[in-house]
Amino acid sequence: MIFARNFVLGLLCRATMVMSKAIARDVNSPLSIVTTTRTVTASASTSSSSLTLATPGAPVSPKVLLIANTFEFGYLDAYNFTIQYTGVLFDQILACTDDGTICKLECGQELVSASQITALLMIPGVNLKKAYIIITGTGGVNPKYGTAGGTAISTFGIQWEWGGMFLGDDLPANFSGQYFFSYAQLTPDQYPVTVGSEVYKLNEALVDRFYATGSNVTYENVSETAQDLRATYEYDAAKREPFLARCDTVSSQVYWHGNVAGENVEYYSNVITNGQARPCNTNEDDQGRLLALFYGAVHDLVDFGRVSMIKAFSNFDRPPPQLTAYQSRFYVGEGATEPGLRNAWKTIIAIVDDVLENWNTVFDAGIEPNTYMGDIKGTLGGVCDFNSTSSAAKGSVQGS
Questions:
Q1: Contact yes or no for 271/398 (Cβ under 8 A)
Q2: What pLDDT shows up at residue 286?
Q3: Can you tell me the distance from the alpha carbon of 371 to that of 246, in angstroms, rounded to the nearest whole number?
Q4: Contact (Cβ atoms closer than 8 angstroms) between residue 266 and residue 174
Q5: For labelling alongside 69, which of 7, 169, 188, 332 has CA 20 to 30 A away?
Q6: Which domains does the chain have, with CATH numbers?
Q7: For the chain, which ranges sit under pLDDT 50?
């Protein structure tokens, strides 16, 4: 027992040392290491002490609202946020440019962000009915669809936590992973019973426009060590230099990593969207944020057709062939966080420029959805096109 405890403590100490400084090794060695440190860049725009506090109830109607964590805004210096708005029950920073055209919400993580965004929607004078809302931040990347340091723009947001789970010796012998599906489904390929918040589908026409704009942005590359690491993956997307991928986000309050978890996520995403989603971005934030914005749309406080997700890839969500999941998670870690965030902000800046330059001719009136948009229940109207086996994509679990 003493040896086991000392071994674990030794691993933790070693991991801590790796986080404080990058230790580069040959990528083919047992432990290929890339820096895992997340450096928070100091920015005057993230400090509430540098902002002028607006009079309670002062009106603001932004054309763009950016939502991210505080440290992620440390990598954005394109806008001068000068005025802070506050209200009852709202304890985050909502700050806007002088003219109120662009605002940022320094939002928390996980499902707690749903209550924070709800409190934002209740602030008198803050009008988000015409705002294009961009959710951003970092997450892991499925190497089948993207690469570390790249970015994703998504159509689907999927919550993974409606699955059930067995662990350890309780896992049945015929299970390929730890998760099964909601409400005691008898077979893993049966479409599960749903409550409505499992999947949100965004405005695909808006995704088309934003993807076309963002694809013209030139990205910076990751470190040489990270380049060597990505070359060892078997998937073409993983081997590429950072690029803007068009694929979907899956979020859970549980941080997962590895091939078993990754395959479970892919399978569930396939079932819950009948094969339409391409799950590439793993994170702990998006579904809470989408939940609040969706119900804001239900009550006519937000236009859900103006909501988008553009997220950075900080790391691969599973190991390359030469590493275990543990080694990949704790010794390689999230070494692409900084170039990933800079690349994501480059994409977002280009998109914001497009919105502002073409406001009168394109964006003021809004971009009409060209497919179904909304939740799994059709709450905003229309017929959901991904919750029935009759709409299953070819090659999906339910499709032929």
A1: yes
A2: 92
A3: 16
A4: no
A5: 332
A6: 33-160+188-391 (3.40.50.1580)
A7: 1-48, 184, 400
